[in-house]
Amino acid sequence: MDYRAAKQFILSRLRTDLSSHLHYHGLHHTMDVHKVAIELCEMEGIRGHELMLVKTAALYHDAGFVKNKHAGHEHEGCEMVRADLPRFGYSGQDIERICGMIMATKIPQSPQNHLEEILCDADLDYLGRDDFYKIGNSLFEELQAYHLIGDEQAWNRLQVSFLTAHRFHTRTNKSLREPVKQAYLRDLQELVATY
Q: Which of 63, 80, 85, 161 is surrounded by the fewest CB atoms within 10 Å?
């Protein structure tokens, strides 16, 4: 399994093929999820071969956006994984585990094992971080660019319902990110109550 070559390959593709309208789902998001996934693996005791699988899944989790559509991008990413990774020495079993992680990030998230939980939490880690509003604004901008949301009031209502339904999965994020996320949820609920 040549993780470095696979990484170089997919990052090159994302750099050239992602739309400039992806204010949130751009290369910067992939790199953030990759970094957080590595940190979560460290804190959750994942090492070796499984760490390589999580890192690869993080790099590919939103690769389907090269098709420039929101719906079904996880499925598209899995198709890319199945097409790309055999040439880098990934086994069929590894590829299916990577696809399981990618599909688990589809909203509403549905992780079935520890590695899937890690990728899901890495994907939405910002919900409990200091850059919540900055990153959230980039998602709002992107959804507007694709005509998937109306005004700021509609966006804030969506955020309230999303944060209310969302759950972190790993022990690490339940303790580190959940309390911060709950504070943002309370702030947004107060704001929406004024509409």
A: 161
Return the number of other C-beta atoms located less than 10 Å from residue 61's C-beta.
30
Give the torsion sign (CA, 117, 119, 122, 123): negative
Q: Is 53 buried (19+), middle (13-18) or exposed (0-12) by CB count in 10 A?
A: buried
What are φ and ψ of residue 191, in 5° steps? -65, -50
| pTM for the structure as a whole | 0.97
pLDDT digits (tens, 9 = 90+) for 98-113: 999 999 999 999 999 9
Residue with tokens 């966006």: 155
Q: What is the CATH number of the domain that holds 132?
A: 1.10.3210.10
Tell me how far CA of residue 90 lies from CA of 36, 52, 83, 102, in angstroms.
23, 10, 11, 16
Domain that holds residue 146: 3-193
Nearest to 102 by CA among 155, 44, 30, 192: 30
Both structure tokens of 49: 């071969």
- Contact (Cβ atoms closer than 8 angstroms) between residue 57 and residue 95: no
Percentage of the chain modeled with pLDDT above 90: 97
Burial of 20 (0-12, 13-18, 19+ CB in 10 A): exposed
